[in-house]
Specification:
The protein has 5 helices and 11 strands. Helix 2 runs antiparallel to helix 3. The C terminus is likely disordered. The structure holds copper (II) ion (CU).
């Protein structure tokens, strides 16, 4: 390979990297950033996109070059020349991916430590997932809690979220907050799964909790409203909610009994019982 060819190949790799990476990093895949963690997560994602596009460009350019440069002449039915290893090439294609993967791992580790830093004044929040709804419980003093089907949170305060599930694995996600964590049903004696997650909403507004783990036929409908409000509004909202006693292992959200067996058709047929 001549020096001019090498320069052309490198130029082609850089151009293809730019053509694929620039549009991909410009798209806001998950909406406007609305938490203090979102920016760091987006930057990490963009760096990974650029690295992936670079690797993609190397593979595509070299593949195209080899197809063109080493194509068989018409009528050539002979075998290719036998070749053996190229030490320089093998060291190169081992070292470069190793450096890229190590860089990605260390950078991700740093970002993870950063976004999981706990604040001393965090708001405790217990979230219960079940097919196909969410219940948001706010533990209060004297062992009681406030239970809601809408997630209301104060702006600028870290939320210390504990997740659990009553049936199958679900996953808690507010796209604008970027944070995502599985809600795993606890087996007998609990489980060893890290079910806590921290997020600090920093933009007022209305968002959606989305279940992001395929959990059954109603999965696509498993959404809940999120309202990020000023601290004073949050305090006022909390004061006006009814206090309930938490029930271990069950969703405390169904205080009205609306989802129990009290349907009207069932009631008429069971009135003749003992
Ligand atoms: Cu789901």
């Amino acid at each position: 390979m001549t020096r001019a060819t090498l320069v052309r190949l490198i130029a082609a790799i850089l151009v293809l990297t730019a053509v694929t990476a620039v549009p991909m990093t410009q798209i806001h895949w998950n909406g406007t950033e609305a938490s203090t963690q979102a920016d760091k997560i987006d930057t990490l994602l963009n760096v990974m996109i650029v690295l992936s596009c670079f690797v993609f460009a190397i593979v595509m350019v070299m593949l195209g070059y080899c197809i063109w440069r080493y194509r068989a002449k018409p009528g050539d039915e002979s075998d290719g020349e036998p070749i053996h290893g190229n030490t320089k090439l093998e060291i190169t294609w081992t070292v470069i991916p190793t450096v890229i993967v190590l860089f990605g791992a260390i950078y991700s580790w740093i970002v993870l430590g950063d976004i999981e830093t706990k604040a001393s004044d965090a708001v405790r929040l217990d979230i219960t997932a079940q097919q196909y709804e969410w219940t948001f419980n706010y533990p209060q003093a004297n062992g009681k809690e406030v239970s809601s089907k809408t997630l209301v949170v104060p702006e600028g305060r870290q939320l210390e979220i504990r997740l659990t599930s009553l049936d199958v694995i679900h996953s808690f996600w507010v796209p604008e907050w970027r944070i995502k964590r599985d809600a795993v049903p606890a087996g007998p004696g609990g489980n060893d799964i890290d079910n806590t997650v921290e997020v600090t909403p920093d933009r007022l507004g209305i968002y959606n909790v989305v279940c992001t783990e395929l959990c059954g036929f109603g999965h696509a409908t498993m959404r809940a409203l999120v309202r990020v409000v000023p601290q004073s509004d949050f305090d006022q909202w909390l004061r006006h909610q009814k206090l309930v006693t938490p029930q271990p292992g069950s969703s405390t959200g169904d205080v009205s009994g609306a989802t129990s067996s009290g349907s009207t058709s069932g009631a008429t047929s069971t009135t003749g019982g003992p």
